[in-house]
C-alpha cells in the first residue's frame, strides 16, 4: 500500500480535470482526495499502484482541453482507515495558476441544445466542463463558482445534482445552469423605446426575423457585445459601416460550420483544426470567390469565426444563413461594450435592438484574430479563447526576479513574469482616449490582483511620451522599483526570441514607427543579438517623415514628396491635387521633419502610388489593399543597393524610382505590388546572408507589424529557408505591438542574467 502526493500545473482548472482524477481513482480502487489550489490541482492517491502508473495514465488520458505543463510528486505516509476517494473544497488563496480561457460550445452541448427530449433543450446558456465562459467570469482564484459572476444564480435541484455528481459532464462546471435557475435574456427596442418581453427562444426567434428584415442587433456574448446583421443585405452593411465610422475596415463573419467556409475560402488542414477548436478565434481565410466584397472592402481575406455560443448558433440556424456579421460593438476610440446599460445608452442610431443577459462580464475580452502561415497560427489580437497568454520559461531563461512590463502605446498589452512563467493580458487597445486608458489601468490592476504579483522590475518603452512609460515612471517612484527602458523594435525581436527559447539571433523588426535610440523614427531595423547585447546593423536610409504624424493617416503627403523628388512632371500629372501637395513639398524643404527609416510608411507610399487609396481610415488600410492586389505568381523584384559605410543601409528612393518607371510604362499594378513584396523579402535575405558571413549566425527572427502581411511573411520565410537559415517568427505572442510587453520582459530577463 503506497500513498503519493501529486501537484498538477498547467491548464487544469475549468477543464474537467478534477472529475477526470476522481474517475481514475475510482477505476483503480484508490483512496485519497483531489482539490483545486492557487497553483494548480493537488491530489493524493493511496492504493496498490506505482507513481509511474499514475503518471502514465494521466498523461495519456487527459481531458481534451487540459494542458499539463508540470507534474510534481513524492511518496508520503499512508493514511490509516481511509475508505474512499473524494473531491474536497478548494484552498482559498491567490498564488500562480493558469487562468482558464473561454471555450466555444462543444459538440455534446450543441447536440443537447437541439434535442427535444433533453432537459437542456434550448438552454441558451448551456455549458459543461468542455465549454463555456471562463476567463471573462472569474473574479478571483481558485476557479470555483463562488469566485465567478455565476455565484448569483443558485442551483435548481437538477443542476445541483449534475454539479455534484462526479461522473456527470457538468460536475464542478462553474458556468453550468439551466433555464430554471440561470441567467435571463432581455430585449430592448430602440424604435419602441421599451423592452420586448418573452421567453428566451421567443426573443431569439424575434431577433432572427428582424435580422432577415434588415435590422441590426447588439448581442451580448461572452466577452462583450457584438453588432449582428445580415451580410447578404448590402444596404444594412453600408449602414453599419457608416454608423460605426469604420470606412473600409473589414467586418467579421460568424459561420454555421467549416463546410460553408470552404464554399467561399481556401481552407487548409490547420485552419480547419483551429476553426473547429474550442478557442473559436476569427481566422483570416484566403478568399476564392468575390462574395462578400462589400463586407471586407474587396480585400483578399475574410475574417470568419465559428458560432461559439448557443445564441449565435441558434440565430444562424433560424435565419438559414451560412454567415452573419458579428463585429465588436464599440464606437471609435471606445473599447468593446460589455454592459447592457452602456449598450442602451451608446448604441442608439447604430443598432435597432439590444439583446442581453444578466450574467456579468467581469473582464472585457475581444474576439481573438489571427492567420496561418507555415503551419503556425499567427496571433494578431489576443482575446477570447487565448487570453491570458502564457509561456513557461525554460531553465536557461529563468531568473528569480519578478517583472512587470507595460507594453507600448498601440495594441497595448500588459505582461507579467512571475517565477517560471510569463503571462500576457488580452488586447487592451490603442491608448489615445480616456476610455482606452481607463480600460488599460483596470486590466493592469486586475492582472496584478489575480496573480498576486510582487515584482522587482518594471519594463516599459523607450519613448518617454507614451502613457505606458509615464505610468511606469510613476509606479517606479511610488513603489521604489527599478525601471528598464526597452527600445520598441528591440522588444519586437525579443518577443519572438522568448517564445522560441533563443538567446542569440539575427533579428528583423519592420513596422510603422517607433522612437529609435538615436532620436530618429525607426521601423526597418536589423539587429545582431547575443543575450542582452544588441547591435543595430541594418535599416533603410533615413528619409524625412513629411507631414509628421499626419503622414500616418494621410500617406499621400509622403507619397507625393517622394514622387516629386524622383520625377516632378510625373508627380504633378499623376496627383490631381498637386497644388496642395506642392505646398507640402515646399514645407518639407523649410521645416525639419523627423527622420524616419520605417518600412511601414513605405508600404503606405507604394500603396498610394498604385491607387490603393490616399488615406488610412484605419491602421494599415492601404497596405492591406496593396497586399490584396498582388499577383502571387510573380517572382520578379526591383534592384537595390546596400551601402556598408556604417550599418548596412538601403536607399528606398532607388526602389521607388523603378516603381514609378513601371507605372509610367503602364505595368499592371498587381505585378508592381508583387515585385515590391518580393523586393522587401529579398532585402531581408541579402542582408541576412551578409550578416551570416560577418557574425557567423544562421538563426533569423522576424517580428513587427509589417509582417502581419501574410504574403510578405510567407515569401520571406521561404526565401530564408531556401538559403539555409533557421527562421522563427511570432505565433504565441502577437507579431504586432501586442507582443511588445512580452519582449520587454525577455529583454529584462537577459539583462538580469548577463549584467
UniProtKB/TrEMBL annotation:
Assigned protein family = Belongs to the carbamoyltransferase HypF family.
Start and end of every Acylphosphatase-like domain?
3-89
Q: In which pathway does it act?
A: Protein modification; [NiFe] hydrogenase maturation
One of the record's GO molecular function terms: acylphosphatase activity
Q: Which organism is it from?
A: Caldicellulosiruptor bescii (strain ATCC BAA-1888 / DSM 6725 / KCTC 15123 / Z-1320)
> Which GO terms are recorded in the biological process aspect for this UniProt protein?
protein maturation
Name this polypeptide is given: Carbamoyltransferase
What EC number(s) are associated with this protein in UniProt?
6.2.-.-
Pfam families, per database record:
Acylphosphatase, HypF_C, HypF_C_2, Sua5_yciO_yrdC, zf-HYPF
Q: If you read the UniProt record, what top EC class would you report for this enzyme, in one word?
A: ligase
Q: Where is the active site?
A: 18, 36
Which segments constitute the YrdC-like domain? 201-385
Amino acid at each position: 500500500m503506497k500513498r503519493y502526493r501529486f501537484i498538477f500545473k498547467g491548464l487544469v482548472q475549468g477543464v474537467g480535470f478534477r472529475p477526470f482524477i476522481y474517475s481514475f481513482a475510482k477505476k483503480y480502487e484508490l483512496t485519497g482526495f483531489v482539490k483545486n489550489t492557487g497553483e494548480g490541482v493537488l491530489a493524493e492517491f493511496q492504493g496498490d499502484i506505482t507513481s509511474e502508473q499514475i503518471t502514465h495514465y494521466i498523461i495519456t488520458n487527459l481531458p481534451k482541453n487540459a494542458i499539463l505543463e508540470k507534474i510534481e510528486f513524492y511518496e508520503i505516509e499512508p493514511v490509516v482507515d481511509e475508505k474512499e476517494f473524494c473531491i474536497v473544497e478548494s484552498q482559498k488563496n491567490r498564488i500562480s495558476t493558469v487562468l482558464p480561457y473561454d471555450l466555444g460550445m462543444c459538440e455534446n452541448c450543441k447536440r443537447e441544445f437541439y434535442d427535444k427530449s433533453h432537459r437542456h433543450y434550448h438552454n441558451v446558456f448551456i455549458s459543461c466542463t468542455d465549454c463555456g465562459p471562463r476567463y471573462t467570469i472569474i473574479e478571483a482564484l481558485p476557479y470555483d463558482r463562488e469566485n465567478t459572476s455565476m455565484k448569483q444564480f443558485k442551483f435548481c435541484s437538477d443542476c445541483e445534482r449534475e454539479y455534484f455528481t462526479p461522473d456527470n459532464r457538468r460536475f464542478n462546471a462553474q458556468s453550468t445552469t439551466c433555464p430554471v435557475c440561470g441567467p435571463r435574456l432581455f430585449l430592448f427596442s430602440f424604435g419602441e423605446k421599451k423592452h420586448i418581453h418573452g421567453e428566451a427562444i421567443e426573443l431569439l426567434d424575434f431577433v432572427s426575423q428582424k435580422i432577415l428584415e434588415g435590422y441590426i442587433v447588439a448581442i451580448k456574448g461572452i466577452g462583450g457585445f457584438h453588432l449582428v446583421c445580415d451580410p447578404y443585405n448590402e444596404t444594412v452593411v453600408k449602414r453599419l459601416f457608416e454608423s460605426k465610422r469604420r470606412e473600409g475596415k473589414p467586418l467579421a463573419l460568424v459561420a454555421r460550420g467549416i463546410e460553408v467556409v470552404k464554399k467561399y475560402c481556401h481552407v487548409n488542414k490547420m485552419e480547419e483544426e483551429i476553426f473547429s477548436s474550442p478557442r473559436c478565434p476569427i481566422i483570416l481565410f484566403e478568399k476564392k470567390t468575390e462574395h462578400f466584397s462589400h463586407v471586407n472592402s474587396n480585400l483578399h481575406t475574410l475574417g470568419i469565426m465559428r458560432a461559439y455560443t448557443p445564441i449565435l448558433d441558434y440565430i444562424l440556424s433560424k435565419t438559414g444563413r451560412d454567415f452573419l456579421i458579428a463585429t465588436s460593438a464599440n464606437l471609435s476610440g471606445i473599447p468593446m461594450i460589455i454592459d447592457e446599460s452602456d449598450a442602451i445608452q451608446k448604441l442608439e442610431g447604430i443598432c435597432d435592438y439590444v439583446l442581453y443577459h444578466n450574467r456579468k462580464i467581469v473582464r472585457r475580452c475581444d474576439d481573438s484574430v489571427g492567420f496561418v502561415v507555415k503551419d503556425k497560427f499567427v496571433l494578431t489580437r489576443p482575446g477570447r479563447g487565448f487570453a491570458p497568454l502564457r509561456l513557461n520559461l525554460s531553465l536557461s531563461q529563468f531568473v528569480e526576479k519578478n517583472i512587470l512590463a507595460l507594453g507600448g502605446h498601440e495594441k497595448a498589452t500588459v505582461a507579467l513574469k512571475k517565477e517560471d512563467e510569463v503571462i500576457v493580458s488580452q488586447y487592451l487597445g490603442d491608448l489615445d482616449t480616456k476610455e482606452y486608458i481607463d480600460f488599460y489601468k483596470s486590466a493592469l490592476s486586475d492582472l496584478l490582483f489575480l496573480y498576486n504579483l510582487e515584482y522587482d522590475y518594471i519594463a516599459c518603452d523607450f519613448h518617454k511620451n507614451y502613457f505606458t512609460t509615464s505610468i511606469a515612471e510613476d509606479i517606479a517612484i511610488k513603489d521604489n522599483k527599478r525601471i528598464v527602458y526597452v527600445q520598441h523594435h528591440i522588444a519586437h525581436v525579443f518577443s519572438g526570441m522568448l517564445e522560441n527559447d533563443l538567446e542569440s539571433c539575427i533579428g528583423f523588426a519592420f513596422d510603422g514607427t517607433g522612437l529609435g535610440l538615436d532620436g530618429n523614427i525607426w521601423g526597418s531595423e536589423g539587429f545582431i543579438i547575443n543575450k542582452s547585447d544588441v547591435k543595430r546593423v541594418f535599416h533603410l536610409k533615413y528619409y524625412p517623415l513629411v507631414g509628421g504624424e499626419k503622414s500616418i493617416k494621410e500617406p499621400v503627403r509622403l507619397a507625393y514628396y517622394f514622387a516629386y523628388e524622383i520625377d516632378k512632371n510625373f508627380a504633378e500629372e499623376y496627383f490631381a491635387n498637386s497644388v496642395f501637395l506642392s505646398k507640402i513639398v515646399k514645407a518639407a524643404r523649410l521645416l525639419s521633419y523627423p527622420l524616419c527609416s520605417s518600412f511601414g510608411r513605405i508600404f503606405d507610399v507604394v500603396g498610394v502610388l498604385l491607387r490603393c487609396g490616399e488615406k488610412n481610415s484605419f491602421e494599415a488600410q492601404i497596405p492591406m489593399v496593396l497586399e490584396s492586389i498582388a499577383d502571387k505568381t510573380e517572382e520578379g523584384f526591383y534592384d537595390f543597393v546596400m551601402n556598408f559605410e556604417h550599418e548596412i543601409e538601403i536607399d528606398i528612393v532607388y526602389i521607388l524610382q523603378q516603381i514609378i518607371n513601371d507605372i509610367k510604362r503602364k505595368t499592371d499594378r498587381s505585378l508592381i505590388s508583387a515585385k515590391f513584396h518580393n523586393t522587401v523579402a529579398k532585402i531581408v535575405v541579402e542582408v541576412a546572408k551578409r550578416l551570416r558571413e560577418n557574425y557567423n549566425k544562421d538563426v533569423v527572427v522576424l517580428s513587427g507589424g509589417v509582417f502581419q502581411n501574410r504574403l510578405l511573411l510567407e515569401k520571406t520565410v521561404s526565401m530564408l529557408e531556401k538559403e539555409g537559415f533557421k527562421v522563427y517568427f511570432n505565433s504565441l505572442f502577437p507579431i504586432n505591438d501586442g507582443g511588445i510587453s512580452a519582449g520587454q520582459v525577455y529583454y529584462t530577463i537577459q539583462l538580469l542574467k548577463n549584467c
